[in-house]
Description:
Layout: H1 3-12, H2 18-21, H3 34-37, H4 39-55, E1 62-67, H5 73-80, E2 89-94, H6 98-101, E3 111-114, H7 117-125, E4 132-136, E5 143-150, E6 159-163, E7 169-177, E8 180-188, H8 195-199, E9 207-209, H9 211-223, E10 224-233, E11 235-236, H10 238-242, E12 250-254, E13 257-258, E14 270-273, E15 275-276, H11 277-280, E16 288-291, H12 292-298, H13 301-315, H14 321-337, E17 346-352, H15 357-364
Parallel strand pairs: 1-2, 1-5, 2-4, 3-4, 5-10, 11-15
Antiparallel strand pairs: 6-7, 6-9, 7-8, 10-17, 12-13, 12-14, 16-17
Helix pairs in contact: 4-5, 13-14
Bound molecules: S-adenosylmethionine.
S-adenosylmethionine (SAM) binds next to helix 3.
Amino acid sequence: MSFAQYMDIALYDESVGFYATVGRAGRRGDFLTSPEVGPLFGALIARRLDEEWLALGSPETFVVVEFGAGPGTLARSIAFATPECGSALRYLMVERSSEQRALHADHLEGWTGDLEAAGVETFVRSVGPGPQFASSPIAPYGFTGVVLANELLDNLAFDIVRHDGAGNFERLDVHHVEDGLEFVVAPTEVSASLAPVLSSAAAGEWIPLQEHAVQWIMEAVDRVERGVVIVIDYGATTPEIAARPEMGWLRTFVGQERGGHPLDAPGACDITTDVAIDQLATACEPSKTTTQREFLQRLGIADLVDEGRRRWTEKASAPDVEALRARSRVGEAEALLESGGLGDFVVLEWTVEMRDEAADRSRNGR
Length: 366
Ligand SMILES: C[S@@+](CC[C@H](N)C(=O)[O-])C[C@H]1O[C@@H](n2cnc3c(N)ncnc32)[C@H](O)[C@@H]1O
């Protein structure tokens, strides 16, 4: 099987897949993501949602579809931040793993259920007091609002390919051998749209071919009638990824530690890659690309940290939970802005104006 097929089973198979069984984000989980650092990240995303809601003319129903919501931590922080768009908010956590969806209801006021397709349609078309939250493995089309994905694309199945400088490609397949699994090199073809991007990497270096992520972007942009798709992840260009020594872009994680070889113990660890932003751009050029540091600074992370410091100072002699939370913003901000860490993540935004049928046709017919 291809590496992408293998990875999809190793991460998502209902009975053995890492995310379907034991794996999750969080301090007590397998890796720390920005929402799991603390509530500050969610407070800033809430500001970005407000900005979008106002830009769209404050629609009475404002849909946010968070893909790969994991245990639902970002939604809880956004709810806690009480955004201005809250009264219009229909926030759907789309999560493939039912184990993780089962965690969404915890400490989330306004959670309405784990929905089937019909329930999702009703949820995103409903009008009335929000915020309302729901979960589903299924995402809707045709809404006004936001698609959000934090550290999803690095987890979508990818292949591993290289080129020889003369237009020929090879990929790593996964074969059964007596004592386990091993990589076998096989000739392969790549799509005309991705071949030039892959060929821009140094010949002979193995690189991730992220067709599922490209497909996901195309669908995400098509889902939104008016609004924005926001993707946050660790990313680089394909040539930069190819230059990482010893395929350093292909990583495994378990219990906050780097794991072993991705073919050892399938289902026992996370498998992830740096996201190739130039491959994503073949789906649709992003309207905006920034680092997480720039994105959070623009949204006023410094003000929130100063406010936290002030609140802590006021109550330092007899701190309550709120004062402790305020103080923790300082450390959270350091982690979220860190060079060589979360601060260097890329934030890609695709703004979707009123649907343009001609543009849709040209994108779909590429
Ligand atoms: C690295 S975790 C990120 C969790 C969360 N967004 C965070 O930042 O903490 C990726 C999550 O995406 C989920 N996932 C993977 N593919 C998905 C898909 N196609 N649709 C919805 N969820 C998906 C996985 O089950 C996993 O929970």
